[in-house]
Amino acid sequence: MSEEQENRKQFAIQKLYIKDASFESPDSPNSFSFKQWDPKVDLNLTNNQQHIEGDLYEAVLCLTATVNHQDKTAFLIEVQHAALVVMSGFEEEEKKYLLGSQCMSILFPYAREVISDLSVRGGFPPLILSPVNFDALYQQHIQKQANPEGAVEESSPDQAEVTH
């Protein structure tokens, strides 16, 4: 790639938005009768991307948080937070990295805020998710693709599960 092409690289977030969000509390009002709140949180992360047209792409971070208390589901939150991104001057591998890692790192704080807000609005304490290293998840995904039968069993940026 020439220096002139290198200088013409563009990466810009055009729009951030909630594509989908849902909150369920299947055991309410019983789930509010606990004396001590000791939740078990299962977090599932997925992402997807699509080329819209020209230099425009959509990146979507999907988070599902299932919060169990005393072997019952207290609440379940699903959030899809998305971005419209303009990218030009990048090779395909660079675009995959920007969409699969960098966009997810940008989207996560927004999705995290929605999850916290929905848990409070549902009558529960705020659910504050720990930060996620999307660069590490992306590298694990690349390693897994390069060695599909190898010993790398970690989650990919396409699918990751975290338990708190």
How does this model look, in words?
By secondary structure, this protein is of the alpha+beta class. It has helices spanning 3-7, 92-121, 134-146; strands at residues 10-24, 40-53, 56-69, 72-88, 159-163. The chain has a single domain (3-149, 159-163), classed as Bacterial Protein-export protein SecB. Helix 2 crosses helix 3. 29% of the residues lie in helices and 40% in strands. Mean pLDDT is 87; it is low at 151-164. The protein is elongated and about 60 Å long. The chain has a five-stranded antiparallel β-sheet with strand order 1-4-3-2-5. The protein contains three helices and five strands, in the order H-E-E-E-E-H-H-E.
Features:
164 residues; 29% helix; Bacterial Protein-export protein SecB; disordered C terminus; alpha+beta; elongated; five-stranded antiparallel beta sheet
